[in-house]
Design brief:
The chain is of the alpha/beta class. The protein has 14 helices and 17 strands.
Length: 432
């Protein structure tokens, strides 16, 4: 069985990519998450019978031989697919216009564009596959929604070419205007008015920045639209909204940027969310808004220093292994310590590598367990100085897709910081 799926909280680009992928992989079953956004829900209430979607609960995962993932390549954004994560014989294909993700795929189609459906449209054009007017309309809705009607800075020429192709295939702009119309009611107006009243501007790294913090009650639709309007009215390069739902103890962080130098998607990934260079968001649970604001300002400014040094939050003493330690022994150490990796040192105690559970995928034969760790360790070691901040550590871990950083002082290993250590700071969990 081949299945195609997309991310939770699916939007029009996600569903359009899902349908487009069924044309590229005939016979595959499109699996739409149960969590979808409001505009898409309204569209499906009328057009659902036109598409033969499955829900995650309809799929027997043991029967799945091939998984096609569109508009994301992160496991935690998929619904009901956890059992496939460690499947050894699973063929995985990814189509995505995002640059970050943890799905190890045998085939990847990752390309910068305003929308994922653009990549799939290009493939449909190559294969000369016929599409119906309603399919063309859906694909154009996904393209327009993710590019802000071709106005977001992330929009590229290939998005415009794809839009032209779809209009030539009789995509209906009247349907677009009906279902992509964003609701702007009294709640949204009141929030925007209060944000403008409290608006503050600052200059950071040469950019005009405004961060607005608001307490809200319950779920409010289209806060992203409110923030976009706020950025335009206040007339700043970059705007962030930190919307705290006091009752549910959640913070929705939304960002909008009008300058290429400030990549909102990258900033939001630092908070566990995602997005594009011009737009992104993250949902945080039990987080201190003061810490969120401090982190955003530090990330924008590139400031490597904060009141908390790595030496305050790193783990020490560090468990290390020598480069001649057997893989079998390392596996026992990782199991007993409950950690996912350790630094590897030479006889002079210099850090020469890191061995992690990810490296164990290279171990394919039983006799490899008796091999020295130097045969399988990662030799490209990324380290960080003890005087740097948790923000800088998080940026390095994101950039290099690693889960731990050896902390150095005067060229010597003095500690180690992991993703969880960094998040202890960001989530205001430091001990008193």
């Amino acid at each position: 069985m081949i299945i195609i799926t997309t991310h939770k909280g699916a939007d029009f680009d996600a569903m359009a990519s899902l349908v487009a992928a069924t044309l590229i992989y005939p016979g595959a079953r499109p699996v739409l998450p149960t969590s979808i956004n409001g505009n898409l829900k309204t569209f499906l209430s009328i057009h659902k019978d036109l598409f033969n979607f499955y829900s995650p609960s309809d799929i027997t995962l043991d029967h799945v031989k091939k998984l096609v993932v569109v508009d994301t390549h992160s496991w935690d954004r998929l619904e009901g697919m956890d059992k496939l994560k460690d499947r050894k014989n699973l063929d995985i294909v990814v189509w995505d216009h995002h640059t970050e993700g943890d799905i190890e795929a045998s085939e990847k189609h990752l390309e910068e564009s305003g929308a994922t459906v653009t990549l799939l449209i290009n493939e449909i054009k190559k294969q000369r596959t016929l599409i119906t007017p309603i399919q063309a309309t859906l694909f154009l809705m996904g393209l327009y929604e993710d590019t802000g009607n071709m106005t977001f800075p992330s929009t590229l020429a290939n998005d415009a070419y794809a839009a032209g192709f779809l209009l030539d295939r009789r995509a209906d702009l009247n349907i677009l205007s009906t279902f992509l119309r964003q609701a702007y009611g009294k709640k949204q107006k009141d929030i925007l008015f209060e944000m403008i009243q409290k608006a503050e501007r600052s200059e950071v790294a040469g950019f005009s920045i405004s961060i607005s913090r608001m307490d809200i009650e319950g779920r409010i639709q289209n806060l992203a639209m409110v923030l976009q309007m706020y950025r335009e009215i206040v007339n700043v390069d970059v705007a962030f909204g930190i919307f705290k739902d006091v009752e549910r103890k959640k913070c929705m962080v939304i960002g909008r940027s009008n300058v290429d130098e400030v990549n909102i998607g990258l900033l939001m990934r630092s908070l566990g969310g995602g997005g594009h260079p011009g737009a992104g968001s993250a949902l945080l649970h039990g987080v201190n808004p003061d810490t969120i604001e401090e982190m955003l300002m530090e990330l924008i400014s590139g400031n490597q220093y904060s009141s908390i040094r790595l030496s305050d939050i790193m783990s020490y003493p560090v468990v290390t292994v020598t480069e001649d330690t057997k893989i079998e022994e390392v596996a026992m150490i990782l199991r007993d310590m409950g950690c996912t990796g350790v630094p590897v040192i030479d006889k002079d105690e210099n850090v020469v590598g890191v061995i992690s559970r990810r490296d164990f995928k290279k171990v394919r034969k039983t006799n490899h367990m008796q091999s020295p760790v130097k045969a399988f360790m990662s030799r490209k070691v990324v380290t960080i100085d003890h005087n740097k901040s948790a923000v800088e550590a998080a940026k390095l871990m994101i950039k290099h897709d690693i889960g731990r950083l050896p902390v150095m002082k005067d060229g010597r290993l003095i500690g180690i910081i992991t993703r969880s250590d960094a998040m202890m700071y960001f989530y205001d969990l430091l001990p008193d």
